[in-house]
Amino acid sequence: MTPAVQSARERSLLASELEDAWPVLSPEERLEGLRLLPHADAEDLLLSLPARDQADIILGMAPGERRSWMRLLPPDDAADVIQEAPDTEREALLALLDDPTRHEVGALLAYAEDDAGGLMNPRYARLRPEMSVDEAITYLRRQARERLETIYYVYVLDAEQRLLGVVSFRELFSAPPEKTVRDIMSKDVVTAPEEMDQEALSRLFAETDFLAIPVVDAERHVKGIVTVDDIVDVVQEEATEDIQKIGGMEALDAPYLDVGFWSMVRKRAGWLAILFVGEMLTATAMGYFEHEIARAVVLALFVPLIISSGGNSGSQASTLVVRSLALGELKLRDWWRVISREAFSGLVLGTILATIGLTRILVWQGLFGAYGEHYMLIALTVSVSLIGVVTWGTLAGSMLPMILRRLGFDPASASAPFVATLVDVSGLLIYFSVASVILRGTLL
Amino acid sequence: MTPAVQSARERSLLASELEDAWPVLSPEERLEGLRLLPHADAEDLLLSLPARDQADIILGMAPGERRSWMRLLPPDDAADVIQEAPDTEREALLALLDDPTRHEVGALLAYAEDDAGGLMNPRYARLRPEMSVDEAITYLRRQARERLETIYYVYVLDAEQRLLGVVSFRELFSAPPEKTVRDIMSKDVVTAPEEMDQEALSRLFAETDFLAIPVVDAERHVKGIVTVDDIVDVVQEEATEDIQKIGGMEALDAPYLDVGFWSMVRKRAGWLAILFVGEMLTATAMGYFEHEIARAVVLALFVPLIISSGGNSGSQASTLVVRSLALGELKLRDWWRVISREAFSGLVLGTILATIGLTRILVWQGLFGAYGEHYMLIALTVSVSLIGVVTWGTLAGSMLPMILRRLGFDPASASAPFVATLVDVSGLLIYFSVASVILRGTLL
Fold first, then answer.
1. In this complex, which of A23, A152, A174 lies closest to B144 when CB atoms are compared?
2. What ipTM was estimated for this complex?
3. Residues whose CB falls within 8 Å of the CB of residue B216, separated by 6 or more in sequence, listed in order
4. What is the DSSP letter of A330?
5. pLDDT of residue B411
C-alpha cells in the first residue's frame, strides 16, 4: 500500500488526493481508494476516468457489486467499458444493464470503436416540427428529467424519424412562445455518417465549432449524437498516435507507465529492427567505396556529418507534411506545390549548411592545417554533397508521406527515422559519387 | 482568379464550394468569394474561420464595410481578431464595436492569447442562489434572448459577484419548480485561474469532461468561461507545435501552405544549423580516430549503422517521454522509474540489434569472406558497441526531455534530431573505444 492510501485511511480520503495518486496506484489500491471515498465522490471519480480504467475497476469488484456501477455509466461509456473487457466477461457485463440500455449498448457495440458510430450517444433530445416553442420547452423539461445525455441541440424529426432540422437550446429559449419549432429550426444540419472515422470527425468538429453533431444513416435516420467533450479525447489520442509513429515506433494505445515492459519493448523493437536492417545498406554502400576510403581516410571523417544533415532535413520535411495531411491542411492534389516548394527549400537549406561546412573546413585548415594540400577540393566535395543530400532529404521527406497516403497507408508511418534511414543510404551514394568526380586525379 | 471562383460567378456560389477552395485562394479571391455568397452564408463562413483568416478578411474590406462584420463576432473572437491585426489597425478595429462590447474586449486584450484569460468569453449565464427553479428558468430565457454565448452551465454568484456554485441547465430543467437554485446547485466547482496556461487548461478539460469551465480571479470573481469547443482547437494547436518541435524545427503557428516561403525557411534553418554545428563534433571525433581508421578501414564501414541505431532508439525514447509529459501522464518525480525502465529497455533493444548485426557479419563472411581473418573480433566490436550505443541512446533520449523540463524549457525542444545529434557524437566515442580495446594487437 502506498503512503498516499495509508495516510488517507487515517483521515478521510479526499477525492482530489486519490486522483493525484491515481497513475502510480496498482489496480487493488485504486479499488481500495475508491471504497474509502464518500459514495458520491467515488461515482464522480469513476465517471471521469478513461474507459480502460473504468473496466479495470468494475472487473476488480465482486460480481454482486458490479451492477450499480455499470448502471451508473451512460450507454456510450458502458459500450466502451465492455469493449475494454476481456471477451469472456463481455456478456456478463452486458447482462447487468437494464433492458432498454442493454438494447442501446448492444447496438453501439456493433460499431468500430473509432468510428462515429462507436463514439456516439443514442440519447439525444428530439422534437416534432409542429410543436410550439412553449410546448417544446415543456416537453424537453420532461425529457431532461428522464435520462437524456445532452440537450444543447435539439433535433427535429419527421414521423419516420428522419432528420428535418436542428434548433439550439438557446434559440428555442429566446424564440417567441407562439412560434412553431419548424419556424425557428435550421434545415442546414451538419451530420456525420455512421462509419466516419474519428480523425475525420474531429476535423469536422474543429471546422464547425459545434458542441454536438448527429450521426445519421443513409436514410437520414438519427442514430445518436457525438458530443465535443468526447472529441477532445479523440484529438489527444490521435495526436499521440501520430507522435509515436513519427518517433519511429508503433502507437502504444495507453499511458507510458501503464504499458507492460515487454509489450513496450515489442512495440519499439519491431520498427527498430526494420530500420536497422535498412541501415545495413549503409555498410554495403560504404563497402563499395572501401578503396576510396583507404586512399583518402579524410573522406570518412565527414560521413556522419553529411548523412545526419540529410536525415535532419528529411525529418523536418516529413513531420511537416505528415501533420498537415492529418489536419487536412494539405491534400494529395497539392503534391506539385509541395514538391516545388520543398525542392527550393532544400536548395536554400543545403546552401546554408554548405556555407557553414565550407567555413569550418577553411578555418580548421588555417588553424591546424588539418586537411593537407588538397583542402580546397575536400571543402568543395563536402559543400556540394551537403547541397545534394539536404535537397534530396527534403524532397524524400516530403514526398514519402504523400506516397504512403496515396497507397492507402498511414502517412505517419513515414516516420522521421524511416526517412532518415532512406536518406542515410542515398546520402552516402551522393557523397562518394561527388567525391569521385571532384577528387579524381588528386586524392583518389 | 482561380477556376473555382470563376465558375462560381457564373452560377451562384455555394458556401461549401468556397470552403473547399479556401486554402488555395489568395486574400483577394477569398474576399470576392465571400461577397458572392448569400449574406447569411457569408456570415456563417466568417464565424467558422480561424482568427487569422477573419482578421485578413475584415482588414481587406473598405473601412466603411468593416463595422457590421466586427459586430458579428462574439467578444472572445473579436479580441482574437484584434490581436491578429497589425498594431496600427488595432485601435480602429476596437472603435468599431458598440460600447459595452468594446469594454469587454478591452478587458480580454489584457490577457495573453494562450492563457485561460485569453480564451474565455465574458458572457456567461448567472443566477442568484435564492431564486426558485421556475424563476431561474424565466430569468435565463430573458438572458438568452440578449447576447448570451452559452447556457449549458449556469453559475450562481453572491451579492459580491463571487462564485457560490454551478447548476447545469439539465439539472435546472429537471428540478422540481419550487426548489431554490441553492438547493440544487453543486458547490464543488472546477475553476481555472486567469493565468492558467492553455495546455494545462486542456488537460483539465480532458480530465473532467466538462463543456465549460469558469475562469476566476484570486477572490473567486468569475471573469468569464472557457468552452470546450475552443479547447479542441487548442489541443490540435498544441499537438502540432509539439510535433513540429519533435521534427526538429520551430513551431510554424500556421498551416503549411499559408506560411511564406522565407519565413518557413527561417523556422527550419535555425535548428538545422544548430544541429549541423553540433554534428561537426562527429568530424572532430572521427579525426581523433583517423589513425585507427587508416589501419582498419573496415571500422569506417559500420559507422553509419552504429550511430543511426543510437539515434533511432534515442528518438523513440525522447518522443515517448515528451508526449507523456505533455499529457501529464509522467511527472518529473517519476524520473527514477523512467531511468530504470529505459535502461533495461535499452539493454534488451541493444541486444536484439546486436544479434541481428552479428548474424549479418557472420553470414557476409561465410558468403563473401568480406571481413578477413579477424572477422570474429570485428563482429564482437560491432555487437558490443551496438548494445552500448542503443542503451546510451535510450537513456539520453528519455532523460533529456525531463532535464529540459526541470530547467524550465519546453521538453518538446529535446526533439528527436537533437537527441540523435547528441547520440551520434557519443556513439562514435563508444564505438572507437570498444574497437581499441577488442582489436588492440590484431587490427589496431
1. A174
2. 0.74
3. B163, B191, B192, B193, B194, B222, B223
4. S
5. 84
